[in-house]
Write a structure and sequence with these properties.
The chain has 563 residues and is mostly beta strands. The chain has five domains: 9-17 and 497-562, no CATH class; 25-69 and 255-292, Immunoglobulins (Immunoglobulin-like), CATH 2.60.40.10; 75-251, Cyclophilin (Beta Barrel), CATH 2.40.100.10; 311-394, Immunoglobulins (Immunoglobulin-like, Sandwich), CATH 2.60.40.10; 401-495, Immunoglobulin-like. The radius of gyration is 26 Å and the shape is globular.
Length: 563
């Protein structure tokens, strides 16, 4: 269901004045080299003098290089400062870990997050950001010149993270061939948390070992400043590099391209990029892309398997093919291992084809319950460099089908009995105590859910929580039966923001948090109006706020934000 929250106040609307004839300006794009059969991710920045948002298109002069424009992805902004003496030029105080720190400003970095490639990872970052994980709480605790800067640890030393961990999320078009690429740090396979790193130059040894989920588009000077900061023997900056604020923000003037090469080296193409402001103004830039020999033989990885069958009746077999991707089209090697003694004892006759990945699970006679195992894939049988995925199968059970339910709540207002999902398992009147539900609220907190049966005979999961910050939170809900069947669904918890109106001289400024990219500003002459149109005033980004300014004091309007 759609969840909405409305805020109203008086506003005096006028018209913003822009030079409507000014065309967009595309910044220069350097020539690029693309590894054969693989990809290169490139940022594109532009400006729009008339303030209108830009749309981008791109094309290639050769069919040996294709170009993709990433659209619809969120942007993540980060402000960074460095601890300094009180008498340092430009020094100021900023909140930090419950106290204050004296710092000098380093600047801002803005990233496109690849929701189109790594949706789960981007959801996690969005939730932790809204919950305040990074703001005035974490630092770049590791800086390795020519390699990476790493931060996002609430312990500030590389040992910490949120109260949960989640799986790696690899994509064949996301390799570390670029510069300023944003990725999750980990302490082993499928142990992603809150720590992240930003690359300095291509770092191909990291391919498919770390989730690449974003690209720096603005703030390369900040990255360079941090990478050159003095460090101690443990690669920690001598003066803390503090992340003072992070937020999802709108960015209507930048984009990211992915260039993909065929297996032909030496192919040269002209890439043409066009920025259009939708009002007749456009700008065109071109650059040259060349395919080059790739010296890196990337390891295979397990691609998301949406078609894996996880549930079978007692004495039934489960046959699945685990899909792995190898960019060089080499034949990978598969293996599996049971994760507990019960699984080993009750499915010991199971097999996997080492080259095709066909996994056949054969349960013991009349066995009813879960079988937990991990499947691995590697370039060869030595399994030195490998990827893995854990699976939970269930015999003698039925599959769970769940539907998430979005909800809205108020900042710092505890709620109970909030509907999060409904589900069925194909068995009428199944007792509720046959199931458990675990909830990841998205803001670095987890707990269990209450399961009830509704009047229609379906099961419902209800939760209790309180959010301290406004934001859009991805709430992951895992429902599991006692026999082993499970499913995970995600709903959105919307905690709406507050707005402000400031009158200075003849100007009226409406301001609200910039993360509200899925909200619309609406106006009306009466709070009881049926029709609330969207004003024509262009919304501008000011720091971490969205702002509308006008200079007309003759009319009085109500305004609201609405999803």
């Amino acid at each position: 269901m759609k969840c909405r929250r409305t805020f109203s106040a008086f506003l005096l609307f006028g018209a913003l004045v822009f030079s409507v004839s000014a065309a967009p300006v595309l910044d220069p794009i350097p020539n690029a080299s693309i590894p054969a059969t693989k990809t290169l991710i490139l940022p594109v920045t532009a400006s729009s003098p008339n303030g209108r948002p830009l749309t981008f298109t791109a094309s290639s002069s050769t069919n040996r290089i294709t170009v993709e424009v990433h659209t619809g992805n969120p942007f993540w902004k980060m402000s960074v400062a460095q601890a300094a003496a009180a008498n340092a030029p430009g020094a100021y105080q900023t909140p930090f870990r419950g106290g204050v720190a004296t710092v000098t400003n380093i600047g801002d970095m803005t990233f496109m997050l690849f929701r189109d490639l790594t949706p789960h990872t981007v959801n996690v970052i969005q939730g932790l950001t809204a919950g305040g994980m990074y703001t005035s709480n974490t630092i770049f605790h590791r800086v390795v010149p020519g390699f990476v800067i790493q931060g996002g640890d609430p312990n500030t030393n590389g040992t910490g993270g949120p109260v949960f961990r989640f799986d790696d999320e690899f994509h064949p078009r996301a390799i570390f061939s670029g510069h300023g690429q944003l990725a999750m740090a980990n302490s082993g396979k499928d142990t992603d948390g809150s720590q992240f790193f930003i690359t300095f130059g291509a770092q191909r040894a990291l391919d498919f070992g770390y989730t690449l989920f974003g690209q720096l588009v603005r703030g390369f000077n900040v990255l360079t400043n941090i990478i050159n900061t003095p460090t101690n023997g443990a690669a920690r900056p001598l003066a803390d590099v503090i992340i003072t604020r992070t937020s999802i923000v709108p960015d209507n003037y930048d984009t990211v391209l992915t260039l993909t090469a065929t297996n032909t080296t030496g192919a040269v193409g002209t890439i043409t990029v066009i920025a259009n402001d939708g009002a007749g103004g456009f700008a065109t830039n071109t650059f040259t892309a060349t395919t080059v020999t790739d010296p890196v033989n990337d390891p295979p990885f397990i691609y998301p398997n949406t078609g894996i069958s996880l549930v079978a009746p007692a004495n039934g077999r489960l046959t699945n093919t685990v899909t792995a991707i190898d960019l060089e089209s080499n034949t990978p090697s598969f293996a599996f291992q049971f994760l507990d003694q019960n699984s080993l004892l009750n499915a010991s006759n199971s097999t996997i084809n080492q080259t095709s990945g066909q996994l056949i699970l054969i349960p013991a006679t009349n066995y009813v319950g879960p079988v937990n195992l991990v499947v691995g894939v590697a370039p060869n049988s030595l399994f030195i460099n490998y990827d893995q995925q854990i699976y939970r199968f269930a015999f003698g059970d039925t599959a769970i089908s769940a539907t998430p339910s979005n909800f809205t709540a108020t900042v710092s207002a505890p709620f109970t009995n909030m509907l999060l999902a409904t589900f069925v398992n194909g068995v009428a009147n199944s007792p509720t105590n046959n199931f458990t539900a675990s909830i990841n609220w998205g803001d670095n907190s987890t707990n269990g859910g209450l399961i009830i049966t509704n009047l229609a005979g379906s099961k419902e999961v209800h939760g209790t929580h309180s959010y301290t910050n406004a934001g859009n939170y991805p709430v992951y809900l895992t429902i599991q039966s006692t026999l082993g069947a499970s499913t995970t669904v995600v709903c959105t918890g919307s905690i709406p923001p507050m707005m402000s109106l400031v009158h200075t001289a003849t100007n009226n400024v409406v301001r609200w948090p910039a993360w509200t990219t899925d909200y619309l500003l609406q106006t009306a002459t009466s709070i009881s109006a049926v029709h609330w149109p969207v004003p024509t005033n262009l919304v501008l980004l000011d720091g971490y706020d969205s702002v509308v300014t006008n200079s007309n004091t003759n009319d009085v309007f109500f305004f609201r934000l609405r999803k």
